[in-house]
Every structure is written in C-alpha cells, then in structure tokens.
Structure to design on (490 residues):
C-alpha cells in the first residue's frame, strides 16, 4: 500500500518540510563541552595518581585552555537562543527534568573550577607572575593545598559534563535517532578522546604522549564499538529507529558519516597512533587534528540528521 | 477538568477555515500557523482513500515540551492546556525538538509559540476560534471529565484514534474515524 502525506498551508520556517531548529551552535557547544571534559578529567586523574611531574602538559598546561573552551561553548549556546534578552532566565530556575537546565548549571559550576585550577599553575607557567594582591596570594595557597580535592571534583563534574553532551540529545523521545541511552556514554568517550588529542598535540614529552596515545587508542576502540552497538540497536528496533539508522546506511548522511566520522575521525588517526607506537615517526598534529575534526563532525551530523527523524502517523 | 478536542475525519473537507480563523484570532505572523490540515492519501488507484485531519498541539497529558523546558516558560494551566510564557522563554528550541507533532514554532520575535486552545476565549465562555468557524462542525471541544460535554459525547458513539500514541505523550486530540 502506498501512502502519501500532504500538509496544506504549512511552510513554517525551520519546521517544514524538515525540522531544522538547531544549526551549528548546538553541535559546537556539545563539542567544546566534551573537549573541556576530556582535558579536565585527565588533568584530575593524573594529579590524583600523583604523576603530575611526568604528565606536565596534561595536568598543568592543557587545563589553561579549558576556561576558554567552556566560555566559547556557552557563547555558542547563547547564539543558539532566539530570545537572547531573556538569557538570564536559565539561571533563575533549576529544572531537574530538563537536560538543557542542568547542563547550563553544570557549566556554571565547572567553569569557575577550571579557572581556579589554571590559576593554581599560572606561576609555574609564567615565571615571575605576581598576583599583586595579598588576598589572591592566599587564595592561591589554598588552591595548592586542596588541589587533590579539586581534582576529584573536577573528575566528577567532567564526567557529568561529558555524559550530559549526549543526554541533551538522547532525552528527546520525539527524535528517534537521538533517543538511545548509548548516546550519553558515546559522547562522553568521544569527548575524552578529543581532550586527549588536544593534550597530546601540546605535549613535548615523548613518554607523556606515548601514554596518552595508548589511552586514546583504547577510547577510540570503545567509541567504534559503541557506534556499531548504536546502529545494531536501531536496526533491531521499531520502524522509526530502523529509518534513523538507514540515514547512515545508504541514506542521506552515509558519505559524510563514514568518511568524516568513521574513517577520517576515528579509523585513520587510530591507525596512525598504533603505527607510532611501533616506532614509525608520525607528526602528532595529524592524528590529533583528525580526531578533533571527527569529533566536531560527529556532533554536527548527529544534530542535523536527528532532526529529520520523527514518528510516523 | 481536562480539555480535549475531537476531530471528525469523515466530516472534515479540508477547507482550512480553522487555520485562517486561528491566524486571525491569535495574530499569528504571516507564514506561520498554530493549526494546519493534513491530507493522508493511502492505497493505489482505484482503491484510494483520503483522510483529512485538522491538527494542532495535542495538549499532551505527559508533555515532553514542558519537561524539557529549562526555564519553566512552557507550563500547564487549568484544564491541561499547555502554554508558553513569552517573556520567560529564551528561545532555546528544546521544546520544538521534543514535540513529536511539530506543533510549535519559533515566533519571529524570538519566543516559541503554539496553540493555546484559545484559553482567552474559554475564559469568556466562548469556544475556540477553530471550532466556532468550522463550516461542517467537525470539531468538538470540551471537558473530557464532563460526560455531557461535546467532546465526551462525540467520543462515546464513535471509534477514534490518537496520533503516535507510541511516543508516550498521551495526546488529547482525538480523531474520529
Ligand atoms: S503536541 Fe507538542 S507542543 Fe503540544 S503538548 Fe504535545 S508535545 Fe507539547
Ligand atoms: S524555547 Fe522557550 S519554551 Fe521552549 S524549551 Fe526553550 S525556554 Fe522553554
């Protein structure tokens, strides 16, 4: 039986014929959030493990980028808003049921924490740095004294942030491509991997890079596994989910997904990282850049494709 | 009280009067609408069937748009009507993404807008704009909890369906088949 749908008299901008309310801003917001979570998690982890000497870039240098990433992420979120004058309304309520709400609050907590963390290392990064005011000096001493506690808080919050970047999408039952609980862990792992990629790129120590790259290989493996899982889950589910998966398996997004995300963003850089472990000389910026690019493309494609998927009636 | 609407798909002729009445009554900007007509054609010639549906927000009992709103701008008022407070809405678009029926739109002024079941008219004891103009009287509106309301009576004697019940939103538009 053939079925056709006509909606007469409806050509609402950004809604018809396909929903396209979220453009580049939300994917960039999710990407930067995941990136920041990745850097912070490993900074906290290696401090708690007491290895800040060998893992200098991870613990002390890369975290300087985090406040910038988070502020840019919030800026992207702000640009997505269409009623911007009322932005402050986000911070006059906490609505537990709304991922958008608790995500905005998580960012509100984690951004100052990342600034405090970076401030604790600024003297080591910029020799001759002077805080000028006594109170700032006291504060710094406090930060250094309680660094381990901060590290734990940062690890916890960065995991929440990383998972949140996936849950923001997966909480929408109305969009079958997003409505899967794998998206939370998947975006977390992808965020951790992009964080590692940037840290590796900045690091000058061979042994540090080697360790980070080993972790990254495992993460990318997990990511590929989760993506296969995601597609299998869709294919085994109802009609709307099957159609969602088909966007990547022969449909509109097949080429962009497999070429940009799977091959260029995951398979190729992980191969380079493995070759490097076996002693081949590979400029680190190549896998790092590819992983970052793949992470961004993944979010762009998921956001755009998800909006096309819907219930049929 | 639980407001709901029943739409007789056998009586609807798809004239679009309800759409225009709503646009006029609610000052909907040009190019936008809060209700619309769907023509669902099925079968192949010569066994073709057509179903006409006047659709709008379902004022869901389990409304995902209200749950996902970060500011509380989307909320539920007396009778289960789902509304948006314009000057609390930040225009994040989450509620638009969450609606399985694409019943919401982003108003050119920035906030999100949608059908209100004409609650300003209900307050005056009138029916909604779409119901009051329908030339075939195929729209029935009222309180589901009142067995004598138009909508309860319409649902009692006919078979009906709701749209995408599997989305779990408990929609409150009932399509008489
Ligand atoms: S139809 Fe859409 S906008 Fe209306 S209450 Fe249901 S989910 Fe919300
Ligand atoms: S667009 Fe407005 S009404 Fe919709 S979820 Fe965002 S703040 Fe709430």
């Amino acid at each position: 039986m053939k079925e056709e749908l006509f909606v007469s008299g409806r050509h609402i901008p950004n809604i018809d014929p396909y929903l396209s309310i979220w453009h580049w801003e939300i994917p960039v917001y999710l990407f930067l959030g995941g990136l920041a979570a990745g850097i912070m998690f490993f900074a906290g982890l290696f401090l708690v493990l007491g290895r800040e000497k060998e893992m200098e870039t991870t613990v002390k240098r890369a975290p300087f980028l985090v406040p910038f990433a988070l502020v840019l992420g919030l800026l992207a979120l702000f640009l997505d808003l269409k009623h911007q004058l009322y932005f402050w309304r986000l911070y006059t309520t906490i609505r537990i049921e709304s991922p958008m709400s608790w995500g905005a609050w998580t960012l509100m907590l984690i951004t100052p924490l990342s600034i405090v963390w970076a401030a604790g290392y600024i003297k080591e990064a910029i020799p001759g740095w002077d805080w000028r005011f006594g109170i700032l000096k006291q504060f710094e001493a406090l930060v250094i004294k309680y660094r381990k506690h901060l590290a734990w808080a940062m690890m916890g919050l960065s995991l929440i942030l990383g998972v949140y970047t996936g849950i923001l999408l997966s909480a929408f039952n109305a969009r079958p491509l997003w409505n899967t609980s794998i998206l939370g862990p998947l975006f977390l792992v992808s965020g951790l991997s992009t964080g590692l990629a940037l840290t590796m790129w900045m690091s000058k120590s061979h042994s540090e890079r080697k360790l980070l790259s080993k972790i990254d290989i495992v993460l990318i493996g997990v990511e590929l596994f989760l993506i296969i899982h995601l597609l299998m889950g869709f294919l085994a589910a109802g009609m709307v989910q099957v159609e969602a998966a088909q966007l990547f398996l022969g449909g509109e997004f097949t080429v962009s997904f497999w070429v940009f995300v799977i091959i260029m963003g995951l398979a190729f850089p992980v191969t380079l990282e493995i070759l490097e472990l076996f002693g081949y000389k590979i400029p680190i910026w190549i896998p790092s850049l590819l992983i970052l690019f793949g992470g961004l493309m993944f979010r762009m494609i998921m956001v755009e494709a998800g909006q096309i998927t819907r219930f049929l009636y | 009280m639980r407001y709901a609407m029943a739409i007789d798909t056998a009586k609807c002729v798809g004239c679009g009067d309800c759409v225009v009445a709503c646009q006029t009554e609610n000052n909907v900007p040009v190019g936008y609408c809060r209700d619309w007509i769907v023509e669902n054609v099925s079968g192949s010639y010569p066994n073709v069937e057509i179903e006409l549906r006047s659709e709008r927000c379902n004022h869901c009992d389990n409304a995902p748009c209200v749950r996902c709103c970060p500011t509380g701008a989307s909320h539920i008022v007396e009778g289960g009507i789902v509304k948006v407070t314009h000057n609390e809405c930040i225009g994040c678009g989450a509620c638009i993404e969450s609606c399985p029926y694409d019943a919401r739109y982003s108003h050119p002024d920035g906030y999100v807008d949608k059908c209100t079941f004409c609650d300003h008219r209900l307050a005056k004891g009138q029916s909604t704009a779409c119901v009051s103009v329908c030339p075939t009287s195929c729209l029935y509106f009222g309180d589901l909890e009142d067995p004598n309301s138009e909508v309860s009576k319409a649902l009692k004697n006919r078979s009906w369906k709701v749209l995408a019940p599997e989305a779990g939103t408990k929609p409150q538009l009932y399509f008489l088949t």
In short: Strands of chain B lie at 3-8, 36-42, 49-55, 74-77, 81-84, 105-106, 112-113, 139-143, 160-161, 173-176. Residues 17-25 of chain B form the longest helix (9 residues).
